[in-house]
Amino acid sequence: MTDTDGSDRAAAALAVTALFAVIATMAFGAAGSFPAPTGFPADASIVHNIGYALFDIGLGEIPAEGFLAAFLIIALALDVALDAAIYLAKREDEGSIVSALTDGGREIVAGDVAERDPADKGGDR
Amino acid sequence: MVPPEYYLVLSAAVFCIGLFGILTRRNALYFLMSAELMLNAAVINLVAFSFQWGNLTGQTFALFVIALAAAEVAVGIGIVLVLYRNFGEIDVLSADSMRW
Amino acid sequence: MVYETIAFALFALLTVGFSLGVVLVDDVFHASLLLGGSLLSVAVHYVLLQAEFLAAMQILVYVGGVLILITFAVMLTRRETDPEVTNV
């Protein structure tokens, strides 16, 4: 089952193909303007350098201190996401923050799922 | 090595596929998966040019993007489950009480 | 050089094919499995670009975390009474 009807789907496919054509033309227009890839030293391990930076041992030849800030911020972002997921999943008697997602803003009663006729929508697709 | 413009084209292809998924689906789970595809396309570019210039900054940003995608999916799954609990379906058009 | 190009072309085809499957397949569980294949082939691209750490992170975080979460949501929002879902 498609979610949009055929003409909308064809229009979306056309627009996306046009966007891809534009980007590919630009990319191949830039072909040859890049120098040979620098790459990383063959015997250098990024994981080793991150470990050295973590314990402040000045051994690594690749500067990896930037990764440490990334680790901290990632930890914070994942904590916030976990809290938000738990907060969304919590059900309160006097209505929670997700009450606005119900049909017309009515209150959520415990054990209640919307009485909307399932035949008038496209199922769970 | 493979020239970076090939990676640009690959990333553009994956990004456009994700955009097509978002434009044509109404299921919230397809939205999440298509957003993952588009984020992956961006990360391919970051890693390819990190290799091109021998600079680790691109990989650092790629790590950021991966973690943010994980956080986004965690919250997105919560929203999908709330949608399913309140409507019995996960159509993105059904939650329209704040729609103008 | 030529082997690298061949490897790139092979895994680029895999990536694009799996991604097309994600947006074109109608069963949402099959779509999530195809998304896993797409993420794994992107991890192979990272290995080709000497970013082994990022490849490991990609597999750990995406395939081990994100994909499991999406599969959870697919299972939790699937209705047993829906005939067009149970017939798939």
Automatic annotation (TrEMBL), chain A:
Keywords: Membrane, Transmembrane, Transmembrane helix. The chain crosses the membrane at residues 12-31, 67-89. This is Proton-conducting membrane transporter. It comes from Halonotius pteroides.
TrEMBL record, chain B:
This is NADH-quinone oxidoreductase subunit NuoK. The lineage of its organism: Archaea, Methanobacteriati, Methanobacteriota, Stenosarchaea group, Halobacteria. It is found in: Membrane. GO terms for molecular function: oxidoreductase activity, acting on NAD(P)H. The chain crosses the membrane at residues 6-23, 30-49, 61-84. It comes from the Archaea. It is a multi-pass membrane protein. It comes from Halonotius pteroides. Signal peptide: none annotated. Keywords: Membrane, Oxidoreductase, Transmembrane, Transmembrane helix, Transport. GO terms for cellular component: NADH dehydrogenase complex. Its EC number is 1.6.5.11. Its main location: membrane.
TrEMBL record, chain C:
Coiled coil: none annotated. The keyword Transmembrane helix applies. It comes from the Archaea. Keywords: Membrane, Transmembrane, Transmembrane helix. The keyword Ubl conjugation does not apply. One of its GO terms (molecular function) is NADH dehydrogenase (ubiquinone) activity. The chain crosses the membrane at residues 6-25, 32-49, 55-76. This is Short chain dehydrogenase.
